[in-house]
Amino acid sequence: MSASDPVTLPEDSNPTTRGWVVPAIIGTAMLMQTLNATSITNALPTMARALDEDPLRLNLAITMFLLASAVFLPISGWVADRFGAKRIFMVAMVLFALSSAACGFANNLGQLVLARIFQGMAGAMMAPVGRLVLLRTTPKSELVGAMSVLTMPALLGPVVGPVLGGAIVTFADWRWIFFMNLPVALVGVLLVRAYVPNVKEQAVSPIDGIGILLTGLGLAGLIFGFENLGRGTLAPWIVATLFGGGAAALIAYGFHARNNPHAVIDLTIFRLQTFTASVVGGAFMRIAMGATPFLLAMLLQIGFGMSAFAAGTMTFVSAAGALVMKTTAPPILRRYGFRTVLIVNAVIVGLSFMAYGLFKPTTPHWIILTVLAIGGFFRSLQFTSLNGMAYAEVEQDRMSRASTTSSMAQQLVQSIGIGIAATLLHGLMVAQGQTQMTAETIAPAFVIVGAITFISLAFFIPLPRNAGDEMNGRT
Q1: Which residue numbers in the chain have pLDDT < 70?
Q2: CB atoms within 10 A of CB 379
Q3: How far is 394 from 202, CA to CA, in rounded Å?
Q4: What pTM was computed for the model?
Q5: What's the per-residue H, E or C state across 2-30?
Q6: Can you tell me the distance from the alpha carbon of 381 to that of 210, in angstroms, rounded to the nearest whole number?
Q7: Can you tell me the distance from the alpha carbon of 215 to that of 419, in angstroms, rounded to the nearest whole number?
Q8: Would the CA dihedral through 399, 402, 408, 411 be positive or negative?
Q9: How far apart, in whole angstroms, are the C-alpha atoms of residue 408 and residue 410?
């Protein structure tokens, strides 16, 4: 089957279901995961007091979730092919809900960490397998519109999560951060069962145990390293060891995967220019996306003295810009094509990140809200374009590996973004001879992060003008 062949759809598939119902259902399940992850960050101090633990030790609950996700991400595509993507997606939602309940009932750090490990395992299956269901039930000409709905969780989660977490620990009990996943998962499983077309099992190759071990160790080492970069929670030599070990494992996997037809991650997929531009070029955009919520929280709360709830409420406006974009992305891409949109939009997004560094305590709130809303609009357009173009040249029998590879890259890059942000703040404080963060310390970090996004242009400019045209109906 060639990349230009139409997708073979299940018999119960119809345009209305494919258009927004299926991506909305899958996106809602993924939103459950992103909301949970970002809500916990804001609730850690309260959770630490309730469990009689040091807040730094409680950060282990976040770290172990990330490590479990990293270890199980590589196998998600193979499991979906072997047992059926729809079935695995529903199982992952149930496991995520049950492990969430276990987190809510935890009475000490050990119980919480164990439950979070199972949550990470389920989350590792939920995101890439959910995307795989969409890829196998949606024609390429409709994929951009579907992806624009599916990508909403990635944009809403970091914005809504801190507000929701702050509200729950302020007005209720922290355990409801986990309990709220139960009804969402129940409704989600019922909707998936009723509306999501069945995706049959695919012909699978033998499981690549060595490849799974190497990629899992590599991702775990790098993600754990970046999560602790610049935070001072681990000794520098431990962080360096994590980076070295993670990099060595991934390099070893590169040799292992060479000329191996059964490799769990197909590295030859990076020979596709559109996939490489989306995953590698888009990584520089996602670094800024991962760093910005952290930097904005520091700027508004520490630099400007806002409460966590007030700062979270203000940044929520960027989600409004993202929502407006969802109706305009498909016609914009049909009119101008992926290449033009990615190039022009990369400049706009980079400048919008830099503009956040111009905020002052005296800046009128309406100006801050306007800039955040505009930034949310163009940022959402960029990620919708990147996610849609990634699969333009991918054949159906390689979709599971492409989805898994993309998910692995995005999770790693998100950790890189947070690590870079923490390192930048520490470096700027040292350079300015300060012992505490101020607005003047934080502002230059936005300029640096914004400049990083321009590296993506090196991948977008060489794209052919008609790159991915079949994805958005251009002729």
Answers
A1: 1-19, 41-42, 45, 54-57, 59, 152-159, 162, 199-204, 229-233, 308-309, 312, 319-323, 326-327, 472-475
A2: 25
A3: 16
A4: 0.74
A5: CCCCCCCCCCCCCHHHHHHHHHHHHHHHH
A6: 38
A7: 20
A8: negative
A9: 6
Break the chain into its structural domains and give their ranges.
13-205, 265-475
Q: Do domains 13-205 and 265-475 have the same CATH topology?
A: yes
pLDDT for residue 191: 87
Give pLDDT, residue 153: 65
Distance (Å, whole) CA 102 – CA 120? 13
Give the pair of three-digit tokens for residue 342: 């990615």
At residue 8, the pLDDT reads 41
Q: Assign domain 13-205 to its CATH superfamily.
A: MFS general substrate transporter like domains (1.20.1250.20)
As given in the structure block, the two tokens for residue 463 are 């794209």
Q: What Rg value do the Cα atoms of the chain yield, rounded? A: 21
Q: Which option is the CATH number for 265-475: 3.90.190.20, 3.30.2350.10, 1.20.1250.20, 3.40.50.2000?
A: 1.20.1250.20
Taking a C-beta distance cutoff of 8 angstroms, is the pair 30, 126 a contact? yes
